[in-house]
Design a protein that fits this description.
about 350 residues, Neuraminidase, four-stranded antiparallel sheet, 2 helices, globular, binds calcium ion
Length: about 350
């Protein structure tokens, strides 16, 4: 009798385990889109805030929040000294990771004559922003190639900068242009950066506009010239090749430079170009088919692209095109803790929108 009861118990245990696994249905789901707001003015960055509102920048200098449940938009602040010039203006934004205790908002924007970029920290209180503190300024700027995406990992702030249309700058480790920079959250330079008293973390970049952490790695997306848009894995102190190298070290004139400078090759590249901008890393069960993928916003390519990663998160094993042409040029992408996805578009007309993607 004891043996029979034991066998029955084991059987029930196995059934229970199987049921548990079946409960987590990870089969692909259909997606739907909902336009939350139109008629924005070149929205550039989206950050899903700890207040469950989506914080966003517009290139002219405005910082606002939108409530994804009712589409209500509230403007927090318009930065007076933002200067729009070509691709430049108010670009990337990040919130302090412990925002309730440290309500700081980091933004990157173009200013002044001659034109430059700077990184500024604002304090948030009472539905507004005040007390701007410049953490880094005199970053080279130009009509084109200003970056800039911001990313906070732990207690460090990473910043992408463009080459400001001067191809002599990315290989010059003393210039702030064409770099991934790394600062402490108070703007000081970390003691474990590759060079002492230098915010540079990686160099040889052309114009990176996507930056996201995946496990203990950082991935960036970068605009190439007429060829070789790139996604890179950013490593401390490494050279990413621009302007000598485009994408992989595979052409005449590239291989010698790559060997001499220990250049990091892109993990994927696109010719013809697609103009990749913002990027997020998706690993939620909410949209199971996106698990372990980068989601990349494309301007010229006018779509959201899924880049499925391998288990080691070192390579792209599959790409899928989503919402092709539906929203024209897509600038940035973020996600909610629940797993919904939000994109903003950059068209310079009434189709400057924020769109929700859900199941
Ligand atoms: Ca490169
Ligand atoms: Ca190449």
């Amino acid at each position: 009798m004891k043996k029979i009861l034991f066998a029955a118990g084991v059987l029930l245990f196995i059934i229970a385990c199987k049921k548990d696994r079946n409960d987590e249905d990870l089969s692909p789901v259909d997606l739907k889109t909902k336009i939350l707001v139109s008629n924005l003015n070149l929205p550039w960055e989206l950050v899903y805030g700890p207040d469950n509102l989506i914080w966003f920048t517009e290139k002219g200098g405005k910082i606002s929040r939108i409530n994804p449940t009712n589409s209500e938009v509230t403007t927090l602040h318009t930065i007076a000294d933002v200067k729009v010039q070509g691709e430049g203006g108010l670009l990337g934004m990040a919130l302090h990771p412990n925002f309730n205790a440290n309500p700081f908002v980091y933004v990157f924007y173009g200013y002044g004559t001659p034109y430059k970029n700077k990184l500024v920290k604002f304090s948030y209180a009472n539905n507004g922003l005040s007390n701007p503190q410049t953490l880094l300024d005199n970053i080279p700027a130009s009509n084109n190639h200003n970056g800039s995406r911001l990313l906070i990992v732990g207690d460090k702030l990473f910043i992408t900068t463009g080459d400001a249309e001067d191809t002599s700058l990315p290989q010059n480790v003393s210039s702030l242009a064409g770099k991934t920079l790394r600062l402490n959250l108070d703007g000081s330079i970390p003691t474990d950066n590759p060079f002492p008293n230098n915010p540079m973390w990686s160099y040889g970049h052309r114009n990176a506009q996507g930056l996201v952490s995946v496990g203990n790695k950082i991935f960036s997306s970068e605009h190439g010239p007429a060829s070789d848009d790139e996604v890179n894995i950013i490593e401390k102190g490494r050279n990413y090749g621009w302007p000598t190298v485009r994408g992989k070290c595979n052409e005449t004139g590239e291989t010698a430079f790559c060997n001499q400078n220990n250049v990091v090759e892109s993990i994927i590249e696109w010719t013809p170009t697609i103009a990749p901008s913002g990027m997020t890393y998706y690993n939620s069960n909410y949209i199971p088919q996106f698990k372990n993928s980068l989601l990349l916003a494309l301007l010229k390519g006018q779509r959201l692209m899924q880049l499925k990663l391998n288990d080691a998160q070192t390579a792209v094993i599959e790409t899928n095109d989503l919402f092709v042409g539906d929203f024209d040029r897509i600038r940035a992408v973020t996600q909610s803790p629940e797993g919904k996805i939000y994109i903003c578009t950059s068209n310079g007309n009434s189709k400057d929108q924020i769109v929700e993607i859900s199941r």
